Amino acid sequence: MSEIKTAGIIILFFAVRCVVPLLITLAIGYLMNRLVDRWEVEAAAAEEATSVKPAVPSTGKAVPTARGIPCWLMRNCDAETRANCPAYLNPAQPCWIARLMAEGARPESCPDCPVYDPKLAIN
Description:
The protein is an all-alpha fold. The chain has helices spanning 3-50, 71-74, 79-83, 86-89, 95-103. The longest helix has 48 residues, at 3-50.
């Protein structure tokens, strides 16, 4: 064999020995990125499915209670109390949900109140 052919074969084998592992590494990296993206989408969907959101009627009207009247009428709240009440300011939500969202905690008097209905918060 001539020296030029021998040198060409050696260069070709060296290139194959370096390029093939590099291509395999790049392909594995690409596939891993696609897998991570898929896991992130699945995790976001699972988190959204498990998060509890209060059910809010789509109308802007007052939410009727079991007796059919809003809480501020049932409790005979005066105008000053209503002006500061989250339930009155957000009539599309049940009163205890509006107070929960505004104050950060459900008032302790809610479970004893005839207006309180936790089934409204379940999706």
